[in-house]
Design a protein that fits this description.
Blueprint: H1 6-9, H2 15-26, H3 33-44, H4 50-55, H5 61-77, H6 81-84, H7 100-112, H8 116-127, H9 136-153, H10 156-171, H11 178-196, H12 205-208, H13 212-221, H14 225-235, H15 239-252, H16 260-270, H17 274-290, H18 292-295, H19 298-315, E1 319-321, H20 322-329, H21 333-346, E2 349-354, E3 357-362
Protein name: Eukaryotic translation initiation factor 3 subunit E
InterPro entries: eIF3e
GO molecular function: translation initiation factor activity
Length: 363
Amino acid sequence: MSGDLSMRVLEHCDPHMALMVIDQLMKTKLYKPEDLAVAEKKVLAKTCLFGRMKGAGMEVVELQKKHTARISTLRKAVVGVEIYTAPLTDDSIAPAAPKYPALLELASLMYQGGEYEDSYTLLEHLALGVSPAVSEATLAQVQWGQMAAGIMLGKTSAVTSIIMEMKTTLRSAGTADWTSTVNDSLWLLHWALFVVFRPESKEWQLLVRTTRPEYNAIVYRAPHMLRYTTCAALLSPVENFSLVDFSGPLSQDKRFYHDDITDFLLTSVYEGNLFKGRELLPKAIALVESDVMLRMVKDKLIKALRRCLANTLVLHSQAFEMADAIAMLRTSPEEADELLYAVADFHSLTLVPEAGVVTIERK
């Protein structure tokens, strides 16, 4: 068993997202192929992805008949259904309220069958006419559906907006149904992983900007998420001050969860311990490389880890040998130069190299 946390993440994932993770795991040697095949079948049984189910040796004939028949019934029941599966335009209007139950079910069935684009488009039309004032329950159904289909389609910006809107709604929900609010928050944060850790993403705030109740929910109900919130904080462009703020509660909650990534952050940033940070850097890098959820941003994250240690070196030294810094950061001379000078510039410091030794001076 490796440092991969995918199986824990899958507990709070939609089956279609879970299959994306399993597909990535199949490209690795982290789990036995036969174990992944069993996991795949269990997840597929919760979908209507008939082609893939057949490929996995599953019986689908009766289920496919029922699925197709129900979709046909719903399409006939809703007059003008083709309007709501066409792309939105400036002239698009929301369906009439009585049509919502049937259209929501249709969108769900489309999604279950892998028709993500049609499902997303239909939900876009439904979103035009629903609000908390109309029906909080219906709004939640539309938003969760849009998020799921949007994640499968890679619609990062749209999904981010929905997640932020839902986080605001959950934060204002009060304590009337605290258990439900906590559960929804945990599912939302897990789904956010599929947005945050895409190569092109810059949406780290989805995990970094958690309220204390959200953070408590993570610590007590899903402590493995501390790895991912830590990585999101590392990727944040304002890491030099946000990491210090982030590290405080992380230090207090170390008894609930810690790994080489969280330990690296605590030692190098919160404690300013260069020796321990140097020791933990290769372990943290190895953990990034073994975690499927992090692999898509592996290069960015490893550079962020190195930048973190470079920050500690510059802030807690008067001088250092460049050769030692290169070895410490486990990178090329060129990248070491880039990281060290960027950190120094951020802190208004000047690096003065002479005969292989770099002296640190105030500007």
